[in-house]
Design brief:
Helices cover 31% and strands 25% of the residues. It contains six helices and eleven strands. The longest helix has 24 residues, at 168-191.
Length: 220
């Protein structure tokens, strides 16, 4: 049987790495089109580093506090990614803003998951924003990273209902379940060549359905 070549992926984290774990677990499947070969954190105390190491994946910290500016930190990050021949980067709770040059260097090759239905509720405290706005649907979005924060072309979204009596914690708990399902599915689309960035929009292979059930809705 011919071995399918897998896209080499690095995951960047800042904390516990729950989305990182969902990606690692999905990538263990023989037919998954990506392999997680590196996990990097900008904080040495990030709990996700131990979780990645326990899964047998090289995990290292590049402490952003050790660098005088964003450009020098991004250069150190780039050196690590280049050394491992990384082809695709997944941000999973990575709480750093990149320099435009770094983002441009990874244009079409860097994904992020954001806990809202973009373009609604960019930035932080998205669940509080959703409750304050009174929306009936909330959710999460996987998108390509561009220099403007949370503004990149959308690969996939998953929606959850907002229930009467919800607070930020209960809503977040409902959304994180969908994040853990959505991110691996979106990564599989991109790593497998079924979704790609094309002139600022996401283009899908004709074989990709417009919606794959209630849990995964593809932006088309």
């Amino acid at each position: 049987m011919e071995t399918v070549r897998k896209t080499r992926v690095a995951i960047l984290i800042s904390g516990r790495g729950s989305n990182m774990v969902s990606l690692i677990e999905a990538a263990e499947a023989p037919d998954f089109p990506a392999e997680i070969v590196l996990v990097l954190a900008n904080r040495p105390e990030a709990a996700g580093l131990a979780r990645a190491s326990a899964a047998g994946i090289p995990a290292r910290a590049i402490d952003h506090r050790a660098y005088p500016d964003r450009a020098s930190f991004d250069a150190a990050l780039q050196a690590e990614l280049a050394a491992e021949n990384i082809e695709l980067v997944c941000l999973a709770g990575f709480m750093r803003i990149f320099t435009p040059g770094f983002v441009e260097a990874w244009s079409g090759r860097m994904l992020n998951i954001h806990p809202s239905l973009l373009p609604l509720f960019r930035g932080t405290h998205t669940h509080e924003q959703a409750l304050a706005a009174g929306v009936r649907l909330h959710g999460c979005t996987v998108h390509y990273v561009v220099p403007e924060l949370d503004a990149g072309p959308i690969v996939a979204q998953a929606a959850v209902p907002v229930h009467p009596g919800d607070d930020a914690d209960s809503l977040a708990a409902r959304v994180i379940v969908e994040e853990h399902r959505l991110y691996p599915a979106a990564l599989a689309l991109v790593a497998g060549g079924r979704a790609r960035l094309d002139e600022g929009r996401v283009a899908f292979d004709e074989a990709v359905p417009r919606a794959q059930g209630a849990l995964l809705s593809l932006a088309v």
